[in-house]
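Hi all, long-time lurker, first post. I run a small reading group and we've been trying to get comfortable going from sequence to structure in the token notation. Rather than ask abstract questions, I figured I'd post a concrete chain and ask someone more experienced to write out its structure so we can walk through it together at our next meeting. Sequence below, copied exactly:
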Amino acid sequence: MNCKISRNAASLRDRPDAHSAHAGYLTRRTIDAVRTALLRTVIVASALGQATGCASGNGFVGYDQSLTPHIAGSHISMQNFDATDATSTAEPQGIGTRRRLMGFYQAARLGVRTWHIDPVVRPFSTAKSAVALVLRSANGLARRAIAKVRFRRLQRTPLPPVGSTAPMDLEAFERHLSRIGAGVASQGRIALHVDGDEYFPALNQAIQNANASIDVRTYIFDNDDVAVGIADLLKRRSKDVKVRVLLDGVGALLGEQVDSNAMPPDFLPPSSMAAYLGQGSKVKVRVQTNPWLTGDHSKTTIVDSRTAFIGGMNIGREYRYDWHDLMMEVTGPVVHILQRDSDKAWHKGGVFGDAAWLSRMLFRKKSLTDEGDYAVRVLFTRDQNSQIYRAQLAAARRAQHQILIENPYFSDDVMLYELVRARRRGVDVRVIVGDEGNHAMMNLSNELALNTMLRNGIRVYRYPGMAHTKAAIYDGWACLGSANFDKLSLQINDEINLATAAPEFVNLLRERIFLADMRQSVEMQAPTVVSFKNHFAALLADEVL
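-- Answer (accepted) --
Happy to help. Here is the structure in token form:
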């Protein structure tokens, strides 16, 4: 079943008049009130999420995205929790109570770390995120107003047929990306792993073959049987190589409270994966904290600083068996960029916070001398600096021949406008989205976006089941990774995508993902019927998702 939970985020933005005679006193009182309210909200959300039966991984609202605006970036560390509590030993009828108690405990620590510890150890990051929140809210209102006017003007012109215009100049486009600061250019080679049947065996083999180090960075490290199997492998390897696991706090909280429908009924999940990973092993575990609505949605595993796995899959049963998804296996100098970013995130997540992050920024490891087969660009999303967003907007504006996109969520008005604009200048634009979703609100919002696409000549394909793939090709320039086409991925969360115009890779991506998925999909022929709840969901998606 789908759970719909909403909250009023206005209290986070309310502040007393800075020129009031009692400004200092009122500010302190307001901050204390917000802290208390947020802590209560998180605890209640945790209890409600379990009490209302949100135990289906495929239907849990926000399973791969943050649950609510208030807890989107509020994280909790469990690595210091009593190790004897790591594996559930209760009888089956006690599992529910145990999970609720653990949820309360995690939510309480989540609030404490968010409002009392982060401002001390991560003052720069906390202030930066707060400023970004204000700017995003103001910019979002203006952007939607402008988008409505632009859409009306654009739709007055007749819809042209798909032309045969030559693709854009890819070399000139790469130079343009460098000028606008969209990504870091490097070299490498990318192999595709489509779905869990390809990815998880390759991941297991790479972990088994590691000689020096394994760095796992993921939004969700579930506590189901698949995730526990990988955790056990990491624990065994930690006796021989350095193993670090960096988790997102909200992802950890959500992953541990929901189960896949297909999980073996006799499997008893650990109460805390952070504690389980550290129990009886040398695995080092940290849980990231990024307050003021930010989270780390990246998914990378780097082995020996030479091979990296990156894409949209978290670690859990849904990704292994249930969902259609995509990961990349990367080699070459580009891996050093990914390793450096992973190192910075790891140190920032420690007790020294921003100070440790700054030290890693100043300290540069000497790159290895290996060479890549072709140009690969690394793109990030950070607070108010989304290279992924800038690059794909630029690609949509410059495309002349064809745009192919597969993504589970479409709620960004500017990107939607640019896709419609591309189609109305004769570009062949095609979009693939799953016929089933894991997020009730985004499912409703998607229907409006897909109807808009269809009315403007964009071909829309509904893939059977849950399609979690995040990939695009613009005139031979491919961009894929962890980022969705929503506010969280394009403006708020930490995300990592890779991009390349190498023909051998782009053709492989086109054949294995886009052409293969279109053959399995049903093309929409007419807009779906929508109601007030679709428009309300779209409004909330624009604001917080």
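A couple of things your group might point at:
Residues 123-154 form the longest helix (32 residues).
The two ends are 20 Å apart (CA to CA).
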